[in-house]
Design goal:
The complex is a heterodimer.
Chain A (H helix, E strand, L loop, with lengths): L16 E2 L6 H8 L4 E5 L5 E2 L14 E5 L3 E10 L13 E8 L4 E4 L14 E10 L2 E8 L2
Antiparallel strand pairs in A: 2-3, 2-4, 5-6, 5-8, 6-7, 8-9
Chain B lengths: L10 E8 L10 H16 L8 E5 L6 H5 L9 E5 L8 H11 L5 E9 L23 E2 L14 H16 L3 H16 L12 H6 L2 E3 L2 E2 L8 E10 H5 L6 E9 L7 H4 L8 H13 L8 E3 L5 H10 L8 H5 L18 H4 L6 H12 L11 E5 L6 E8 L1
Parallel strand pairs in B: 2-3, 2-4, 10-11
Antiparallel strand pairs in B: 1-8, 1-9, 4-8, 6-7, 9-12, 11-12
Helix pairs in contact in B: 5-10
Classes of the chains: A mainly beta, B alpha/beta.
């Protein structure tokens, strides 16, 4: 009888990457240039994230991709200590943060070069750009002095 | 009360069934589902062939087609699924009661089967047993592309961030997390079906390893195999069956976003959170106040989320869920509100909330191993994330 498969047979080993789509390609193209660009409503002027074709506030479909300041503060955070996916195993422990950007939207990311014990809610941070594949650059953050 | 749109007092849970719960049963989800369903039919005193409706958890892999083939080809006339994730665990009863109230079916099966033990290998698809997040694709077109590549790979880490914000806002503490874990463990110690039955001290809770700050190992639900099924029928029919009916006094559902999408969740006002909306709808339909509920069954995937649920369902003012659980606040015999008297998903088993629902039924029947005296009203809430659903069960 065939041996029953175990979890090791199914484990995702490679680094999971975003798959740019028609709805978010602008975001990744901008990140690759070192810019944080977010959708801004053409009618009510509010920013939004995640990318989507309609403004959640006023339902307008008018939008532009505007360059954001890249600045914000840590709204909440965690320190991942494991388990995690094999692709992140070497980083343990690492932080994940929710940044409240000055544009009023939340962005999930990581604060680079910040030891776990120094992460604080309200900590000011600014965007930095980390290429992880040929066509994908991730938006990360650093502490602002 | 809007009489034109109510499921109040129309349906009842007439049968409950389950497999053994274990960290590894070695059975397929299909096999476990069938065992639990046969047990629920036996409990109700009906033949599986009498089932004419079915409500499936939307993640459930044992589907209608597989079940029809083993239940003697019952003549289904209603079938549906409820989303999403743990939030839908009580919604199956809301949908079943809706079908019965509308006359679309009379005997509705609800069930959940999970091979979720850490070593329960089953299939490549994330929904096929084991840990879903260990089997994610490496090219992500959906919204998890905004989390997973950043290292936020699983719901427990996302719930950790949500829990951390609750601590930032209200000063919730490790001791309060331990209060939840210990109260539920004490219930599990009295329940022979529970997987985790060793005593837990506060020190042991605090010494358990940190998984994702602020959540420690003992703040997280256990990973188990098992299945649970229930037979829901009209109140009239339930009166004539084998067991005292647990009448679905009220049921409600709400969706507003998705709990895992932190960027949109944190933008919403608290009053619009789905659990808060469900609570409002539920109490209005039931015509009862939180203070009248004798036992509550929250979706205890994490200790912190039980504390938050107490606030969302109106048992504690906002921000005061932590003090509410202190000093055995959730204990069946000395608590402010007896909760998860089976040991819950933290200590009995993690069958996506269904094992908490069957325990609520036992409380209404008076057959729990941690029985609350005179338990005539029990609340069962799905994962207090988004979307979600909840019911209030009452004694006939």
């Amino acid at each position: 009888m065939a041996k029953a498969p175990t979890r090791d047979d199914f484990m995702t080993v490679d680094l999971p990457l975003p798959q740019p789509t028609q709805d978010n390609a602008e975001f990744y193209a901008a990140a690759k240039r070192g810019e944080l660009r977010l959708q801004k409503c053409g009618a009510c002027g509010r920013f939004r994230h995640y990318p989507r074709p309609v403004c959640p506030h006023c339902l307008s479909r008018e939008l532009s991709w505007e360059r954001a300041s890249g600045r914000g503060t840590v709204y909440t955070w965690t320190i991942v200590r494991g388990p995690t996916l094999p692709a992140f195993q070497h980083k343990l422990p690492y932080n994940v943060v929710d940044v409240l950007l000055d544009e009023g939207v939340h962005f999930v990311s990581e604060v680079l070069d910040c030891p776990p014990e120094e992460i604080r809610a309200g900590m000011p941070v600014e965007a930095t750009f980390v290429p992880v594949a040929d066509d994908v650059t991730l938006v990360k953050f650093r502490r602002v002095a | 009360m809007p009489s034109h749109a109510t499921i109040r007092d129309r349906a009842a849970v007439a049968g409950i069934g389950q497999t053994r719960f274990s960290k590894g049963l070695g059975s397929s989800e299909y096999e476990m589902a069938v065992e639990a369903i046969f047990a629920a039919c036996e409990d109700a005193g009906i033949s599986p062939r009498a089932i004419d409706g079915l409500v499936r958890y939307d993640m459930e892999q044992t589907d209608e087609e597989q079940l029809l083939a083993v239940l003697g080809n019952p003549l289904l006339r209603f079938f549906a699924g409820t989303g999403w994730g743990g939030g839908g665990s009580a919604s199956v009863l809301v949908v079943a009661a809706s079908a019965i109230a509308a006359g679309m079916a009379e005997t509705v099966l609800v069930y959940r089967s999970r091979a979720r033990g850490k070593y329960s290998g089953y299939g490549k698809d994330p929904k096929q047993g084991g840990r879903y997040w260990e089997k994610l694709a490496t090219s992500l077109p959906g919204l998890n592309q905004w989390h997973v590549p950043q290292g936020l790979v699983s719901a427990f880490q996302e719930m950790a961030m949500l829990s951390m914000r609750h601590r930032i806002d209200y000063g919730t503490t490790d001791d309060q997390y331990a209060d939840v874990a210990i109260a539920l463990r004490e219930h599990a110690m009295r329940n022979p079906n529970a997987v985790m039955r060793a005593p837990m001290t506060r020190e042991e809770h605090h010494a358990s390893r940190m998984i994702s700050d602020p959540l420690r190992l003992y703040d997280c639900n256990i990973e188990t195999d098992g299945a649970v099924a229930m037979i829901v029928t009209s109140v009239e029919r339930a009166r004539d069956l084998r067991q005292p009916p647990a009448v679905i006094l009220a049921g409600a559902m709400a969706a507003g976003s998705h709990h895992i999408r932190l960027s949109t969740l944190f933008e919403r006002p608290w009053e619009e959170d789905s659990p808060v909306r469900v609570a409002r709808q539920l109490y209005e339909m039931a015509g009862v106040k939180p203070s009248e509920i004798r036992a509550a069954f929250f979706y205890d995937f994490f200790t912190s989320l039980v504390i938050i649920a107490l606030e969302q369902y109106g048992f504690a003012p906002r921000g005061e869920g932590g003090p509410f659980v202190a000093d055995g606040g959730l204990s069946f015999d000395r608590g402010r509100l007896p909760c998860n008297t089976n040991g819950g998903q933290l200590s009995e088993a993690f069958i996506h909330g269904f094992n908490n629902t069957t325990e609520a039924v036992r409380q209404i029947r008076g057959t729990s191993t941690s029985q609350v005296p005179g338990c005539d009203l029990a609340l069962v809430a799905g994962g207090n994330t988004d979307p979600t659903g909840a019911v209030i069960l009452r004694r006939l």
